[in-house]
Design brief:
Layout: E1 8-13, H1 16-24, E2 33-36, E3 45-48, H2 50-53, H3 63-69, E4 74-76, H4 80-97, E5 101-105, E6 108-112, H5 123-138, E7 142-147, H6 150-157, E8 165-167, H7 173-179, H8 190-198, H9 204-208, H10 212-219, H11 223-229, E9 246-257, H12 260-280, E10 283-294, E11 299-305, H13 314-323, E12 334-346
Parallel strand pairs: 2-4, 7-8
Antiparallel strand pairs: 1-6, 1-7, 2-3, 5-6, 9-12, 10-11, 10-12
Helix pairs in contact: 4-5, 10-11
């Protein structure tokens, strides 16, 4: 596929760690929150809320400097388990829309949706739908950039943050790049920026005027990339290279539910969807896990590893019912349910996978 025909989306969660903290703790909302080391240590800012950014605080800033800029800032110890949990939910949303997903970190990823027929092939409408799904499932805000390559999609996702949605079409790219300050070029750090400014390169237009030979003389191996991106060229593929470790589906209810039979029904529906995705990828799974998030956002998981592959069968539905026994379903209202299949093996692996049946083991 020619680059001009590709449709790449870059999703970047807005102030991710801080946003999770503000979501989970009412006392942090609308306050300058800093996730990272305390100011009386040699810690640094991992991320901060937009309320803190108004004071000039940013990631990687020493905490001691941050507290001087904003004495009323609230420092919060990172909760990486909570961030990973949220990131998994977001990743499952991505998987609904593309099988070409390159996760860069817990809070950002590229999606290649060139072949998608959803929303009549509109990557912009698809990105808007993904943003809506993320907000519905996690109560968090994402920004999205859309273009024909990774470089421009990444730049676009920074436009209009927070809650941005920005498209750079192929016919807009060159004019956009020419006006872009060199500091905004993804991949050009402060040291390289200073060196470029010393050479009179202040924006994309200036960069485009420099020959490849001249760039090589000053920047070595990186010269080819600088030469290409000044012309809107970035042929890097979206690299979905990670071996899949699990397949899961989730649903968040518009209204909380508490009837055990209704919870079981929804889990059965989710199991059916998960097994269908498993079969489409020609995989088998031997571990079945359910996830329950109660009305108060407390979340639990219950799982079991089986001797035979998980299927949408009577036996596996009985396992779902058994996993529900050691929960508070029926006593507490439920806002989210999920089913995850893991311990994956290729479908053509006909060796019987033997493992101790830990029927009563919950985690």
């Amino acid at each position: 596929m020619q680059e001009s025909l590709r449709k790449i989306i870059h999703i970047d969660m807005d102030a991710f760690y801080a946003a999770v903290e503000q979501r989970d703790n009412l006392q942090y909302r609308n306050k300058p929150i800093i996730v990272g080391g305390k100011p009386d240590s040699r810690g640094v800012v991992a991320t901060c809320s937009y309320e803190a950014r108004m004071f000039g605080i940013h990631s990687a800033m020493p905490s001691a400097q941050a507290i001087k800029l904003c004495p009323q800032a609230i420092f919060v110890k990172p909760r990486f388990d909570a961030y990973r949990e949220c990131s998994e939910i977001i990743r499952h949303i991505f998987d609904v829309y593309s099988d070409q997903v390159e996760a860069l970190s817990l809070d950002e990823a590229y999606l290649d949706v060139s072949s998608s027929l959803l929303h009549k092939g509109s990557a912009t409408l698809l990105a808007r739908q993904i943003k809506q799904d993320i907000q519905r499932e996690t109560q968090l805000i994402a920004s999205a950039g859309i273009s024909y390559n990774k470089f421009l999609a990444k730049i676009a996702s920074d436009m209009g943050k927070p809650n941005g949605l920005y498209l750079i079409r192929p016919d807009q790219a060159l004019a956009f790049i020419e006006k872009l300050p060199i500091a905004k070029f993804h991949g050009i750090g402060p040291a390289t920026e200073n060196k470029m400014r010393g050479l009179g390169i202040n924006n994309g237009h200036d960069l485009k005027q420099v020959s490849l030979l001249e760039l090589q003389r000053h920047f070595g191996k990186a010269a080819g990339r600088y030469y290409d991106i000044a012309r809107g060229v970035d042929n890097r593929p979206v690299n979905a290279h990670r071996d899949r470790k699990s397949i899961g589906v989730e649903t968040t209810f518009d209204q909380d539910i508490n009837q055990p039979e209704l919870v079981l029904y929804h889990l059965q529906q989710l199991l059916q969807q998960a097994v269908s995705k498993l079969q489409a990828k020609q995989l088998m799974a031997y571990t079945l896990t359910i996830k329950i998030k109660y009305q108060n956002f407390v979340q639990i998981t219950r799982g079991r590893t089986l001797q035979n592959a998980v299927m949408d069968s009577h036996d596996c539905r009985l396992v779902l019912a058994d996993l529900l026994k050691n929960t508070s379903v029926g006593e507490k209202k439920v806002r989210l349910l999920g089913v995850t299949l893991s311990n994956l093996r290729p479908h053509n692996d006909m060796q019987q996978y033997q493992q101790l049946d830990i029927f009563n083991f919950n985690y």
